[in-house]
Amino acid sequence: MKLIPATILTGFLGAGKTTLLNRILREPHGHRIAVIENEFGEENIDHEILVQDSREQIVEMSNGCICCTVRGDLIVALGTLAQKREAGELDFDHVVIETTGLANPGPVAQTFFMDDEVAGHYLLDAVVTVVDARHAMSQLDEHEEAQRQVGFADKLLLSKTDLVDKDAVAALGARLKRINPRAPISKTDFGKVPISEVLDLRGFNLNDKLEIDPDFLSDEEHAHAHHDHEHEHDHACGEHCGHDHAHHDHHHAHHSDDIAAFVFRSDRPFNTSRLDEFLGGVVQVFGPRMLRYKGVLWMEDADRKVLFQGVHQMMGTDIGAKWAEGEVRGSKMVFIGKNLPKESILQGLEQCLV
After folding, report:
1. In what order do the strands lie in the sheet with 304-311?
2. Could you give the count of Cα atoms lying within 13 Å of 278 in the half-sphere of its Cβ?
3. Which residue of 133, 245, 285, 287 is surrounded by the most CB atoms within 10 Å?
4. Exposed, middle or buried by CB within 10 Å (0-12, 13-18, 19+), for 48?
5. Residue 290 has what pLDDT?
6. Closest of 312, 262, 329 to residue 14, by C-alpha
7. Cβ neighbours of residue 161 under 8 Å, at least 6 residues apart?
């Protein structure tokens, strides 16, 4: 039986993975794709931004793509998809796994070699890493996860190049080449990139990965490979780093305790002007510490959902799907940051409700 190619889509918080996925899900490219996506923290906003229907775990998209929100083990999710495909319940020819922005892609990639059932159904096609041109230099300085995502990539996609000058793009490109000379670099503009730059790259080379990390296939690491999609503290474990240090210390790089996620939920609508003013102030004061924030909002007198997301001081909104008849309206926002004043932000958002 022909193996199903799988692409791991990774990149630091806010790099543009979901934007790229949305583009892949909407374009008539002829592929039928199963998407497995997950998020850091207790609430998965991306699923609603992607498919705008949180009632289903697996949703078939308009162009034949399937979206599966993972709460449990990646091996179980891949096995379930393969079983449903064999039973004729699902029809797809490629899998895209979107990792959380704080994930080390190493343990996810390892799953394709360490588990017999997964290896019997799937072929790891490539690790594609989206890099935020505006924030990547500081992210690479401050976060080992960002270095690992670049170091482990088979393909690098530069996003947000329109927000920086040519010299900055060139400097970033040179740094990425030093970290990972094997991975070709392309630019993506709001997720626009030929599908051939993302799928069917045949880019994953196990020997290359073993050069980066000789312990890639060791059982000691395998214990951690299963949990990349469930527990916050496990997203960065494993030692598959390919960054530009001459040595590779094999220690477990757990998230710093000062990075945390929290969620705001409400079944009352927001007052638009109050919310704009409050969020503007929060971003102005705490922007450098706000790694990622996003949400699906119920705004006063609006018949459509408002999609809200940002990285550091860059914040934006977009109009989402119409509220369905009979759908329970409400807002859900996720904040991921370093030492953010959780209670003050939650109380402030409460004050912005109608």
Report:
1. 259-266, 331-338, 290-297, 304-311, 314-322
2. 16
3. 133
4. buried
5. 86
6. 312
7. 133, 169, 187, 189
Measure the CA–CA gap between 288 and 279, rounded to whole angstroms. Answer: 14
> For residue 67, which of 92, 42, 41, 100 has the smallest C-alpha distance?
92
Integer angstrom CA distances of residue 213 from 204, 206, 248: 14, 10, 8
Read off the pTM. 0.69
Contact 337, 290 (CB under 8 A): yes
- Where on the phi/psi map is residue 95: left (φ > 0), alpha (ψ -120 to 50), or beta? beta
3-state secondary structure string, the chain? Answer: CCCEEEEEEECCCCCCHHHHHHHHHHCCCCCCEEEEECCCCCCCCHHHHHHCCCCCCEEECCCCCEEEECCCCHHHHHHHHHHHHHCCCCCCCEEEEECCCCCCHHHHHHHHHHCHHHHHHEEEEEEEEEEECCCHHHHHHHCHHHHHHHHCCCEEEEECHHHCCHHHHHHHHHHHHHHCCCCCEEECECCECCHHHCCCCCCCCHHHHHHHCCCCCCHHHHHHHCCCCCCHHHCCCCCCCCCCCCCCCCCCCCCCCCEEEEEEEECCCECHHHHHHHHHHHHHHHHHHEEEEEEEECECCCCEEEEEEEECCEEEEEEEEECCCCCCCCEEEEEEEECCCHHHHHHHHHHCEC
Higher pLDDT, 255 or 252: 255
